[in-house]
Amino acid sequence: MSNHFARGPLAQHNLFFAIRPPADKVGEIVDLTAALRRKIGGRPLRPDRLHITLLPLVVGREGPRRIREARAAADSVRRPPLYVIFDSAVGALNSALLKPSEPIGALRMFREDLRAALMHFGVPIHRNERFSPHVTLLYGGQLMPEIPVDYVSWIAEEFVLIDSLVGQRRHVELGRWRLAA
After folding, report:
1. pLDDT digits over 96-114, tens only?
2. Alpha-helical segments (H) within 77-178
């Protein structure tokens, strides 16, 4: 793990927990993104970067230690698989998002359990009290009001810890955990 952070002093790391769509749903999201792109333009995310951000972590100079603590916190979380459904899209400033039209209660509860575990293990998280689950589809493009789209849904059976390497358009998966009762 420490070798991961040995990429040089200028490397910037954004650590966050996320839920990724399963492989059989990525194609649906890519198709939806292509249709949206024809309407508003923009640059689509690569399929391997599609995710729902749960909680961003504060890393600082403590990268390897924070990863160990975050992994220990994730090991302690017990939640059953979650049903997620996204059925609207919106063109926001600098991005287009896939969003749910109704709150996803189970996702919020899981996020709160993960937050509590991170706090218990001393992992600082970015203050983000307003949780708005979404999947980013495009960067750039035009503003667009929220519109209904063919829904994309799945049972989330796992969550991951990701290091987004700033400026490299790369995500490195640092851990994966099953959701099980």
Report:
1. 999 998 889 999 999 999 9
2. 105-120
What gap in Å lies between CA 149 and CA 3, rounded to an integer? 43
Question: Between vectors from CA 115 to CA 139 and to CA 152, what angle results, nearest 5°?
Answer: 45
Number of domains in the chain: 1
Residue 163 in any domain: the answer is yes
Number of C-beta neighbours around residue 31 at 10 A = 12
Question: 11: buried, middle or exposed (CB in 10 Å: 19+, 13-18, 0-12)?
Answer: middle
Q: Which 3 state secondary structure label does DSSP give 24?
A: helix
- Indicate the DSSP class of residue 2: G
What residue numbers bound the domain in which 16 lies? Answer: 12-178
3-state helix, strand, coil in the chain (%, to 5): 30, 35, 35
The verdict on residue 4 lying in a domain is: no
Give the start-end residues of each E strand in 100-169.
135-139, 144-156, 158-165
Query: 39 to each of 34, 56, 89, 96, how far by Cα in Å?
Result: 9, 31, 12, 11
Calpha distance 156→176 (Å, rounded): 12
At 116-143, the pLDDT tens digits run 999 999 998 877 668 899 999 999 888 8
The CB density around residue 181, as the number of other CB atoms within 10 Å, is 6
Total-model pTM: 0.89
